[in-house]
Amino acid sequence: MSYNLLAKSCSFLLASAISLAPLAGAQEGQHFDEHHGVRHVLLISIDGMHAVDYENCVASNTCPTLAALGKTGANYTRTTTSRPSDSFPGLMALVTGGTPRTVGAFYDVAYDRILAPPKTDTGNGLAGGNCIQGQNNGTQTEYEEGDEFDETLVNGGGPYSQFDGGVLSIDPDRLVRDPYNGCKPVYPWNFVRTNTIYGVIHAAGGFTAWSDKHPVYAVVSGPTGTNSPTNVDDYYAPEVNSNVVDIPGFKTANGTDCSTISKNTSGDWTTDFDSIKCYDQLKVNAVVNWINGKNHLGTAKAPVPVIFGMNFQAVSVGQKLIENGVKGGYTDAAGDPTPSMLGEIQFVDDAIGQMVATLRHQGLLESTTIIITAKHGQSPIDTHRFFPIPGHSGTNGMPPSQILAALLPASATSGLGLAEDDISQLWLTNSSDTNKAVGMLEENAAAVGIGQILYGASLNTIFYPPGVPNVPGPCCRLREGGDPRTPDIVVLPNIGVVYTGSTKKQSEHGGFAWDDTNVMLLVSNPDIEARTIHSFVETAQVAPTILQILGLDPNKLDAVRKEGTPVLPGLSFEDR
After folding, report:
1. Among 218, 322, 325, 509, which is disulfide-ready with 229 (CB 3.0 to 4.6 Å)?
2. CA 34, CA 232: separation in Å to the nearest integer?
C-alpha cells in the first residue's frame, strides 16, 4: 500500500527520527483510564474545511470516508474557530481549550511589548537586534518557517534525513528573547501561557504524537520550561514552505505520483495543486505508522499514541490557489467546488480512509475516537466577492499598515512586516495614539475597505486590554496590568477584502468572517449515536472533550478553568 512506500523505497533518505523517549511504562493501554472503551483519540485538522464543504461532499458522494464516519458520529454544523482565525491561535484553541485572550497566541506573526528581537535575522526578515536585560524591549514575534536553520529544505536544515523534520530544525538565534530571563530564546512551546491536552495526557502516562506544517508547531506540547517540547513524545514536521523536490517511488492515497513532482513548480509545496498532496501524504504516512505501533518514519517500534494526529494543508491550498490560470476555490456562493478544489477534498478523504483502514486492521477502530475539524476556514467562499487591496496593480486601495505607517514600529513596515490577510492587527509604537490612529483609518475607510474597527471597549470584550504588566517578569504568563500581546486596534475589512498584491490567491483566512470561522466538526466512534447538532459551539471545546473522552478531568486545562470552556454537547456513547 502507498503508506509503506516511503519507508520501503526511500529508507536511505529517512534514516533519522525525532522520537523522544516515552514515559516509563506508558505502553499501549497501560496506566491509562479507559473511558467508554476509548483508549486513543485521533485529532485531524483539515485546514480550511468549512462546515458547508462537509455538507456538500457528503451530499454529492465525493467524500465516502467522511460520510461513513458521520454515520457513527456527531456533526456540529455551527462551529466557530478562534478569532483571529489564523493557524497559530486555531491550533492552540484545539489543544488548550482557550482563546488568544488567555493563551496569548494571536497570529504566527504578531507583537509583544516586553520581549526582545531575535539575535539574528529570521529567514522571513524579522530583523535581529539588541536585548536589553531587565526592561521592556518590544518586538514583533514570529513563529513560522522563518525560525528554521533553512526553510527551503523539507527538513528545515536540521540534523535529519531529507524527508524528516522536527524541533531540532529550529534555530534558537532566530527566536525572540526574554529580557527578564537572561535574554534566553523563547521557544514556541514556552511562548504560550497555558498548558495543553498534550501536557495533561503525557503526565497521565499517555504516549503522545503530532505532525504539522512547521517545526515550531511543536507548540502543542505546551510549556516545559526547557528547550525541548517533552510533552510530545513523537513530533514530525516536514516544512510546508520548503522547495518542492521529487520523492522517489512515492504516491499519494489517490495515486498522485510524487517521483517527478518538482516539474510542476519551482516554488514551495503550497504553489501547486498536486505538490501539496505529496507533502500532506508524508504526514499521513506518519499517522499510519503510529497506528501500526511504530515511530513516525516506521523505522522503530513505539506505543500506539493515546493522542495523535495531523493537519492537512491540501484543502486550504485548494481554496486559495490560482495556478497558471486554473482556479481552485468555489464556483458559487453555495460552496460548490471547482474541479481542482474537489480534487483536494477527495485526496484528503482517501488519506483519512488509509488511517481508518489501518485502525480497523490493527483492531483499534472501536477504541479510537476520531475528531475531524479545522484550525480555520477561508474567506470568501464566493470568489466573486474577492477584492485584493492593494491588488496586483497597486491601485485598489491601501492596507491599514500603510495608512498608519508613521505610528507603527519600524519592524511593521519593513523586513517581515505585518501579517495582514483578511484582518489587520495593529500594535502602535505608542498606545496613546490609538484614537488618532482610529481617526486616520476612519478618514480612509473606503481605500482600506473597512468593515469594522475594534479598539477600546469593543476590543476589551474579546481580549485583555493592551499594555504592559504593572510588574514585568520572566516570560510567559499573564501578569496584573495590560496584556503586552493584545493589539491596540483590529481592522476587520468588508467581506471579500484581502490585503494582498498577489495574483495567485483568491481568498485568505485570519479574520472574523463567517467563511473564516465556520468549520466542520465531526466526532466519530463506532459507539457514538449519530446525530447532527445545530447549536453554536467552538473549536476550543475540542480540548476538554478529548480529556473527558479519555477519562481525564477537563479542568486540568488552564484555559478551561479560566475561560469556562465547556465540553461539546450531545455526545452519547452506546453501551457495549
Report:
1. 218
2. 21
Co-location of 369 and 273 in the same domain: yes
Q: Same domain, yes or no, for 362 and 444?
A: no
Based on the fold, state whether residues 396 and 267 are members of the same structural domain: no
CATH number for the domain spanning 85: value is 3.40.720.10
| pLDDT interval class at 574 (50, 70, 90) | low
Query: What single DSSP character describes residue 522?
Result: E
Q: How many folded domains does the chain comprise?
A: 2
pLDDT tens by residue, 341-394: 999 999 999 999 999 999 999 999 999 999 999 999 999 999 999 999 999 999
**Does residue 146 belong to any structural domain of this protein?**
no
Nearest to 101 by CA among 567, 573, 563: 563
110: amino acid identity, one letter: A
Shared-domain flag, residues 335 and 200: yes
Question: Using 50, 70 and 90 to split pLDDT, how confident is the model at 417?
Answer: confident
Strands 326-327 and 322-323: antiparallel
Burial of 472 (C-beta count, 10 Å sphere; 0-12/13-18/19+): middle
In a domain, 121, yes or no: no
Q: Is residue 414 part of a domain?
A: yes
| One domain for residues 393 and 285 | no
Distance set, CA 341 to CA 19, 246, 348, 522 (Å) = 35, 23, 11, 21
- Residue 320 shares a structural domain with residue 361: yes
Looking at the fold, whether 370 and 473 belong to one and the same domain comes out as no
**Confidence at residue 14, expressed as pLDDT on a 0 to 100 scale:** 35
The predicted pLDDT at position 314 comes to 98
CA dihedral 455, 443, 430, 510 (to 10 degrees): 50
Angle between helices 339-361 and 275-291 (to 10 degrees): 10
Buried b (16+ CB within 10 A) or exposed e, 388-419: bbbbeeeebbbbbbbbbeebbbebbeeebbbb
Q: How many helices (H) and strands (E) does the chain have?
A: 17, 22
Q: Which domain holds residue 418?
A: 387-501
- The pTM score is 0.94
Alpha-carbon distance of 41 to 549, in angstroms, equals 8
Instruction: Report yes or no: 321 and 378 within 8 Å, Cβ to Cβ.
Output: no
Calpha distance 401→429 (Å, rounded): 12
